[in-house]
Amino acid sequence: MRGLYLVTPNWDDTDRLLDVTEQALCAGAALIQYRHKDAGPALRREQAAALLALCRRHGRPLIINDHVLLCTELDADGIHVGGLDAPVAAVRGAVGPDKIVGASCYGDLELAQKAQGAGASYVAFGGFYPSLVKKYAVTTAPDIVLQAKASLCVPVVVIGGMTAANARPLVSRGADMVAAISSVVQAPDPFSAAREFVGLF
C-alpha cells in the first residue's frame, strides 16, 4: 500500500466514473475507494460491482466506503470506515482477517493507535488542506505523519485538499499513500493528474 489512493466522487454517471478511474489505474494508482454518499442501494451496488471488475483487470484493490454488507456481498478487497462509524474491531470481525480495513483518524494519533490495535490495515489522517468534497475544519498538523510513522506499524494515508504539490511535504514526512478525489477526477487530464501523484513515490 504505497502511492496514489483514488477516492471516487459522488457521480451517478457510471460510464464517466469508470473512465476516470481507469485513467487513474493506467497512471499507476495503487488503491481505489468507492465512495458515493448520495447513491441509492441499486446504483451503489451497480457501480461497486463495475469498479471491482475494473480493479480486478488492473490487479488493484477496491475498497468500499462504509458499507460493510456491500463489501462482503461483492467480495471486494476491503472496507474503509470513519472514526465515528462502526468500530474497527466489529468491522474486522465482519469482513474477516484477509480483507483490508482502513480507518479515518482525522488529526487524532490516539484514535489511530486504537484502530491499529483493533485490526486496521491502514489509518488515514486529515484534512490537511481545505477540501472541495468534505467540509471539515482544517486542523491536522503535518507533523502527525512523523509521529504516526514513529509509533505505528500500519501504512499512513493523508487526505484533504490534496494536490501533488501540497502532498509532497507529507510524503517527505513518510506518508505511504495520498488520497485524492477532485484533483484527479476534475482535472482536464485525469491520467496526467494521477501520474503527478504517482511520481511523488
Could you explain the architecture of this structure?
With 201 residues, this protein is an alpha/beta fold. 43% of the residues lie in helices and 17% in strands. The protein contains 9 helices and 8 strands. The protein has an 8-stranded parallel beta barrel with strand order 1-2-3-4-5-6-7-8, surrounded by 8 helices. Helix 1 packs parallel to helix 2. The longest helix is centred in the first third of the chain and has 18 residues. The N and C termini lie close together (11 Å). The model has no long low-confidence stretch (mean pLDDT 95).
The overall pLDDT average reads 95
The largest sheet, given as strand count, sense and whether it forms a barrel, is: 8 strands, parallel, barrel
Number of E-type strands: 8
User: So how many helices?
Assistant: 9
Helix and strand topology:
Layout: E1 3-7, H1 14-27, E2 31-34, H2 41-58, E3 62-65, H3 68-74, E4 78-81, H4 88-95, E5 100-106, H5 109-117, E6 122-125, H6 144-151, E7 156-158, H7 164-172, E8 177-180, H8 182-185, H9 190-199
Parallel strand pairs: 1-2, 1-8, 2-3, 3-4, 4-5, 5-6, 6-7, 7-8
Helix pairs in contact: 1-2, 1-9
Short note summarizing the structure:
With 201 residues, the protein is α/β, with parallel strands linked by helices. Helices cover 43% and strands 17% of the residues.
